[in-house]
Amino acid sequence: MKLFKKILLAFSVLILLSIVLGYFYFDRKFSPEKNHLQVKNESGKIPMKWETGTKDAMLLPIHFDTDTTTYYLQFDTGSPSTIFYKNSITGIRQISVQNNLAKGSFKIGNCEVKSKQFKIIDFGKKLEKNKLNIIGTIGTDLLENRKTLIDFENNYVIFNLNSEPNYLKKEIFDFKFKKRKIIIPGVLDGKDEKFLYDSGASAFELLTTKEIWEKSKLKKSKIKIEKGKSWDNILTTYTAETNKNIEFQHTKIPLHEITYVDGYSKSQYYLMKYSGMSGMLGNKIFLQKQLYIDAKNMKMAIH
């Protein structure tokens, strides 16, 4: 009996140790790099431009000093860092590259964004005349410790807001900005859930687990199956109609479609599990709304 207790104790200690080590492993794995951005001035209203008619990607215009060309960065709250695409910035004199890092500054509206350590990834295409010059991604490092307004209803974004808009004061609630990820609390089908807001998932309302998808879709709904690409991953999405709502504090938004995805990498899967999130909200659910995000005081509003 004593031997059995010793084995049970050793096994319990091993499980506890595995949990602790696993926590620290994933905590480090999903921690973003240090924020190297220097940001000045409120941007004013930055007009959104959508890459396609189906609003697949939200593009925002930027400019470099002494360059009259308008370039675009995709606004992606799923990315913790602002990055440039290696193949697209070739020939832009205002960006200097060394050791896979870029040095430079750009203006987005009246806001100046500067860094000696912009990340670079081997992605993108060489720029062509009369085409959209998409050269990178704006990540949530531009939101960190700052106030941001994303107005889908009127098609603009304001970065580095000086103050909270008065008309939103009664609609403020708490959210989490964990690892520079925007995690919004909400209620789905009577259950408290956590949702990651990813503006890079523009074309979807809610991406969730297969279990929640099965439970929430309408039984007679036709399933729409599509293949797409997320960086280097080939994804298959399964979208069905639903009549569920997501209840956020102070507002309720009806869902029309719900989607689950095959093909995510193991790291993306474990990020969802590790963070306790039930799904990912794309821009589509907010297209008639305004999102106010105060990533300094962890307050937000959905108006």
Which helices and strands occur, and which strands form pairs?
Blueprint: H1 2-29, E1 38-40, E2 46-47, E3 49-50, E4 58-62, E5 71-75, E6 83-85, E7 96-98, E8 101-108, E9 111-121, E10 134-138, E11 147-151, E12 156-158, E13 173-174, E14 176-178, E15 181-188, E16 191-197, E17 206-208, H2 210-216, E18 224-230, E19 233-241, E20 245-248, E21 251-254, E22 257-262, H3 266-275, E23 279-281, E24 290-294, E25 299-302
Parallel strand pairs: 5-10, 6-9, 16-23, 17-22
Antiparallel strand pairs: 1-9, 2-12, 3-4, 4-5, 6-10, 7-8, 8-9, 11-12, 11-24, 13-25, 14-15, 15-16, 15-20, 17-23, 18-19, 19-22, 20-21, 24-25
Q: At CATH's second level, what is the architecture of the largest domain?
A: Beta Barrel
Helix and strand element order? HEEEEEEEEEEEEEEEEEHEEEEEHEEE
Q: Please, what is the average pLDDT?
A: 83
Terminal-residue CA separation: 63 Å
Number of strands: 25
Under CATH, the homologous superfamily of the largest domain reads: Acid Proteases
* Proportion of strand residues: 35-45%
Provide the domain count: 2
- Kindly state the percentage of residues in helix: 10-25%
Instruction: Tally the helices.
Output: 3
Backbone CA Rg: 21 Å
CATH class of the largest domain: Mainly Beta
What is the compact description of this entry?
The chain is mainly beta. 15% of the residues lie in helices and 40% in strands. The protein folds into 2 domains: 38-142, Cathepsin D, subunit A, domain 1 (Beta Barrel); 164-302, Cathepsin D, subunit A, domain 1 (Beta Barrel), CATH 2.40.70.
